[in-house]
Amino acid sequence: MSNKIDLNEIASEQLHEIDLNDVELKAVAPQMEPQRQYYYMAKAKKYVQELSAKLGRPLSFSTQTFGCQMNARDSEKLVGILEQIGYVEEQDEEKADFVIYNTCTVRENANLRVYGRLGQLNRIKRKNPHMMIALCGCMMQEPKVVEKLKKSYRFVDLIFGTHNIYKFAELIVNRIENERMTIDIWENTDKIVENLPSERKFAFKSGVNITFGCNNFCSYCIVPYVRGRERSRDPEAIISEIKRLVADGVVEVMLLGQNVNSYGKNLEHPITFAQLLQRIEQIEGLERIRFMTSHPKDLSDELIEVMRTSKKICKHLHLPVQSGSTRILKKMNRHYTKEGYLELVDKIRKAVPDLSLTTDIIVGFPGETEEDFLETMDVVKKVRYDSAFTFIYSKRTGTPAAAMEDQVPEDVVKDRFDRLLKEVQEISAEVCSVHTGTIQDVLVETVNDHDSSLVTGRMSNNILVHFPGDESLIGKIVNVKLNECKGFYYIGEMVES
Ligand code: SAH
Ligand code: SF4
Ligand code: F3S
Least buried of 145, 221, 283, 467, by fewest C-beta within 10 Å? Predict the structure, then answer.
């Protein structure tokens, strides 16, 4: 009995070294985090082992992630916990014992897709009584959604939100012990729990959260309501996570936040995003730094200077414009004008000449006239983005824009959207091709899906290139000559450095 581990006596940073089979489960769960979650992981592991022994096979899980990089990173944390508990990954959702949907609600069609797939899951679950279904992510932070699930989707086992994903193991145990739908949604919290497991999708690159939530309240956007107020992670926690990742083979990190440029403002010892980048730059073994997303209103001269002199920050900036009309930008609550945005772009391009610029654009925001739309087209023509994500405005209940009058008719929006997309695509094919014939540093990511004699890698400017190679190159940075531009990507060949 006595050689069992009392989690209360283990420091947070040491927890990942313990064997969960040795954890003392007779004691009550620790109050402290993350110790408490390791207790529940150990407990869940026992349940999984028991069921697995009964069935004579391991239990499996499948995750589906919708939405942005934030959700992708959250899913890696969920998978980290599931693997600690003893689940193995199953690609085919229909065969999995535990299906997890990490949802997005930024636009209406994201929600509709989830409901559609849930219908299919219900059919499969009837044939597999061991199947558990969990729903989490942004959609669950909407009370209306949870009401609907409670009423019409009773077969769902576990529902939780964006603030308490760290409690996944505790919620699983709760569900197993109570045998009924477990719902745990938090409205908001300041809490950031560190030192929990996570399982990366790629061995050589990783997302790293630097802020959670958003304070900007762009009038169309639901994110501040479902992700809560902005909280910055402690710089020491970020640095030590990246050092750990690098020791584990990571060469590229993507720093994640809804508005990375406001990082650090509300910390007890405030630091700027540019200062954080400078500290990250010093981490030995780390080769590339990316970040997402930059709000134009908070992009500082200090940051531009750091980007100019950095050896590791990639030559890519995602700078969402949303609209080119100053009038619409004001109604969107974006806090910049068309001219201000264009000046900012000029300034950055002067400082970092070979920078690739990408953006997000919304078409059909309430009250958008043809004139406003032409302003957006004008920005696209002036900036000449490497690529742009274009979205049809989607009305999100609860946001100020949803209550605005003169919503734009569907056919008008569709017409503008098609014109914009055409312009964006033509420009981006032209912009992309300017690198033809150059030699670039490329981080090899995968063996090519369609042709296994090729590998696919990413340049610093985020453009992909396919070239002859094999699996042994994955995770390495190599020199590639860009022979031919195929619109949005290149075909190339490896050359000696
Ligand atoms: N924090 C990031 C964006 C996160 S959401 C930023 O401020 O840039 C990703 C993109 O979804 C946004 O940039 C916006 O273009 C789009 N989006 C958000 N709400 C939308 C809505 N209601 N309708 C259509 N597109 C929307
Ligand atoms: Fe949404 Fe604006 Fe926040 Fe981006 S900055 S998440 S668009 S509210
Ligand atoms: Fe969607 Fe949530 Fe990201 S609403 S875009 S998954 S923050």
Answer: 283
